[in-house]
Specification:
Blueprint lengths: L31 H17 L4 H16 L1 H15 L4 H19 L6 E4 L6 E4 L4 E5 L5 H14 L3 E5 L5 H5 L1
Parallel strand pairs: 3-4
Antiparallel strand pairs: 1-2
């Protein structure tokens, strides 16, 4: 008779230390702003971890509304045009509204929470958040990129920490 060996337990995951190793700093240098942002993002992820599909879709709508509301949209594209010097305010406004509307149309109503039946017999998918997502934002389209990535992250009950380019920091903060 053969006795199966016990399956070894995995060691607990270690969270990476925020460190920089380029010429501007020493290896192991800490970044308190990044660490605070990641900690706040983890808290946000924990806060929505039990949300059902309706609540998640409500969050996605709120992200969209925060950008599509005319007064906010005008403020965001005005800041973006001043900061980056790329494009016109009207073209940026049209692009921002088109991207966010299209994203909302595609995301809302699609399942992103819990069990999801598939068309494959015997296969059921279970959707879980991954946690905190890091996102690089381009300087050519910071307003639309930030809005789209925020909606996509929230749809999966994830939080996102943005890394905007220096010329578009204030746009991304709006």
């Amino acid at each position: 008779e053969v006795t199966p060996e016990p399956i070894p337990r995995r060691p607990p995951k270690r969270r990476p230390t925020m460190a920089r190793t380029d010429d501007a700093g020493q290896a192991g240098e800490r970044f308190p702003d990044v660490e605070r942002a990641v900690a706040a993002a983890r808290e946000a992820t924990d806060a929505v971890g039990d949300y059902d599909q309706a609540a998640v879709d409500g969050l996605v709508r709120a992200v969209g509304w925060a950008v599509l509301r005319e007064d906010r949209c005008v403020r965001i594209v005005g800041r973006c045009a001043r900061e980056t010097g790329i494009g016109t305010q009207e073209a940026t406004r049209r692009k921002l509204r088109r991207i966010v509307r299209t994203a909302l149309e595609e995301m809302l109503g699609e399942p992103s929470v819990g069990r999801i039946d598939t068309d494959r017999p015997g296969v059921v998918e279970v959707v879980k958040p991954v946690g905190v997502v890091g996102a690089l934002v381009s300087s050519t389209n910071p307003a639309a990129t930030t809005a789209f990535l925020a909606a996509a992250a929230v749809k999966g009950r994830n939080a996102v920490v943005f890394s905007p380019p220096p010329p578009a920091v204030a746009t991304c903060e709006l």
